[in-house]
Amino acid sequence: AQSVTQPDIHITVSEGASLELRCNYSYGATPYLFWYVQSPGQGLQLLLKYFSGDTLVQGIKGFEAEFKRSQSSFNLRKPSVHWSDAAEYFCAVASESNYQLIWGAGTKLIIKP
Amino acid sequence: DTGVSQDPRHKITKRGQNVTFRCDPISEHNRLYWYRQTLGQGPEFLTYFQNEAQLEKSRLLSDRFSAERPKGSFSTLEIQRTEQGDSAMYLCASGQGDATNEKLFFGSGTQLSVL
């Protein structure tokens, strides 16, 4: 069965420091992978997605993610975080039917001043 | 506002009561999804519409839950005989195009509390 694991429940990073959020998936075929961000009181917003092609994907707000098939990973990165990046981040994979997304439990990002 | 809107934002109800939530997707979007999210978890798929047709429904969705999308526009999600375990945030999302190129737009959700 398909699944997504985000090993870190919380991550604390100093403002201006680099960030990497981990995501591992379980899927038999080539996955369609997504990262979404959820800020308090806001709807989930798509940061980036991977379907095929270049394994390094650029997204909005300066985020990028790298698909590594050998490690079944799709980690999200940002070279320098801003206080406004504090939010919860979710990794997701599309189901085989492509009718639904299967989500990780999320990683809450805390920014230290 | 051209985003996905959900009504109400919050609903408090007593166990055993029926509740209905509404979702207005982005007008040109043909796909509409309902998800449920509890604290500390990612969203959990409930059901999916393409236009007015309900194409997929989660096995987790009991017969107390029903969703409709008449005329392929807005959608309603009804929960009958609510239970405390139904307390969650109910999210609606809409999208356009085929799933492989899909970008979903989410509403802010309806927070349900069952007392």
Number of helices of chain B: 0
How far is the first residue's CA from the last residue's CA of chain A? 41 Å
Secondary structure class of chain B reads mainly beta
What is the general shape of chain B?
globular
Approximately how much helix is present in the residues of chain A?
A: under 10%
Largest interface: A-B, 26 and 27 residues
Uncertain segments of chain A are none
What structural class do helix, strand and pairing data of chain A support? Answer: mainly beta
Q: What string gives the helices and strands of chain B in order?
A: EEEEEEEEEEE
Uncertain runs of chain B are: none
Radius of gyration of chain A: 13 Å
Q: What does the oligomeric state look like here?
A: heterodimer
What is the overall pLDDT average of chain B?
Answer: 92
Number of helices of chain A: 0
Number of strands of chain B: 11
The rounded distance between the terminal residues' Cα atoms of chain B is 33 Å
Describe it for me?
The complex is a heterodimer of chains A (113) and B (115). Chain A has 113 residues and is mainly β. Chain A contains no helices and twelve strands. Chain B is mainly β and 115 residues long. Helices cover 0% and strands 49% of the residues of chain B. Chain B has strands spanning 5-7, 10-13, 19-24, 31-37, 44-50, 53-57, 65-68, 75-79, 88-95, 105-106, 110-114. In chain B, the strands form two sheets. In chain B, strands 2, 4, 5, 6, 9, 10 and 11 form a seven-stranded mixed beta sheet that branches. The A-B interface holds A 4, 9, 32, 36, 41-46, 49, 51, 90, 92, 94-95, 97-106 and B 3-4, 33, 40-45, 48, 55-56, 58, 91, 93, 98-109.
SSE diagram, text form:
The complex is a heterodimer of chains A (113) and B (115).
Chain A: E1 3-5, E2 10-14, E3 19-21, E4 24-26, E5 33-38, E6 45-50, E7 56-58, E8 64-68, E9 73-78, E10 87-94, E11 101-103, E12 107-112
Parallel strand pairs in A: 2-12
Antiparallel strand pairs in A: 1-4, 3-9, 5-6, 5-10, 7-8, 8-9, 10-11, 10-12
Chain B: E1 5-7, E2 10-13, E3 19-24, E4 31-37, E5 44-50, E6 53-57, E7 65-68, E8 75-79, E9 88-95, E10 105-106, E11 110-114
Parallel strand pairs in B: 2-11
Antiparallel strand pairs in B: 1-3, 3-8, 4-5, 4-9, 5-6, 7-8, 9-10, 9-11
